[in-house]
Amino acid sequence: MLQQQLLDYADDNAALLQQSQALNYQRWNSLNRRVWFEDALFNTYNEYIDFVKKYIVDRIAWYDEFYPGEKKDILLPSTPGNPLQTWQYTVDTPPNDWYTTSFDDSRWQSGQAPFGTERNLQNTLWTTGQIYIRTRFYVNKEDLDKLEKAYFYLFHDEDCWIYLNDKLAFTISDYNTYYQTFEFDKSFLQEGWNTIAVKCIQTIGGQLIDVGIFGPIKDPEETKDTAIHQLDKYPYYIREGILYINQIENGSSVKLYSINGRLIKQQTVTGSEVQIPLPNCGIYLVNLSGETIKIMY
Question: Judging by beta carbons within 10 Å of its beta carbon (0-12, 13-18, 19+), is residue 294 exposed, middle or buried?
């Protein structure tokens, strides 16, 4: 929603400035020329607009990955400030079914994550060329239903394989030097007890392994597009692309404009509520009884 609003805002303002930009570049021939400290140079005004819009898309994608809004922790990583997670582990090569839910790991050692030597982040020392770790965690139905997506919060040095409930959920090569998020299919999670099993190998340099699981929470259906706002003295809300304005005097005139001032719709109120279909997501101006207010959808 926000991404589309910003893209529409960019388009609306680009159209609003169309004549001005033409006069500007006619007076100062600065297209594709470094005027100050510009990193990106383009031949046309529209290429600059496309550059801004691509930045919006890329930035929101980055933000969604690293700051997914309200989230639910399913399995906390053993990072500073979090409770330390205890795992079963072995550095010996286990049987082929080591990652399955039915496997008996009671003879493995117990240790607190992270495992390794990297930057003294470890709580359990691991110095060999491989390690296998397992633990269980509980997910109730309510939390599982709320999850929009699922992510591993992972520190791996080096290659690792992550199994959830008998299936390979994620694998990655090489190493990282800080915790990173990696999306996986949330269908690997199940209601009730879950088993996670991880293999990590080491060839050279530092080594560390720790895994957490979290997911962004879905927006409650009842809050989507139906929040009540105030248009000065007129409450309004938007539902399924229709603008509803209440407590209006019968016979009043309502005008809907695009952000660049183009009249989209004008209608006369019959009753105390008016319903105006919005063409698409974006920013609009509403004029009602001499008052003009900006709304976003």
Answer: exposed
Q: Is the pTM for the entire model greater than 0.70?
A: no
Residue 230's pLDDT band, with cuts at 50, 70 and 90, is low
Rg (CA), the chain: 28
Select, from the ranges 63-72, 73-82, 157-166, 170-179, the one with the highest average predicted confidence (pLDDT).
157-166
Question: What's the angle, vertex CA 62, arms to CA 57 and CA 66, rounded to 5?
Answer: 150
Domain termination site, one of 183, 201, 216? 216
Domain holding 147: CATH number?
2.60.120.260
Q: Kindly state whether residues 115 and 240 are assigned to the same domain.
A: no
Which backbone phi and psi does 15 adopt, to 5 degrees? -70, -40
The Cα diameter of the chain in Å comes to: 82
Element (H, E) at 153: strand 150-157
The residue range of the domain holding 198 is: 71-216
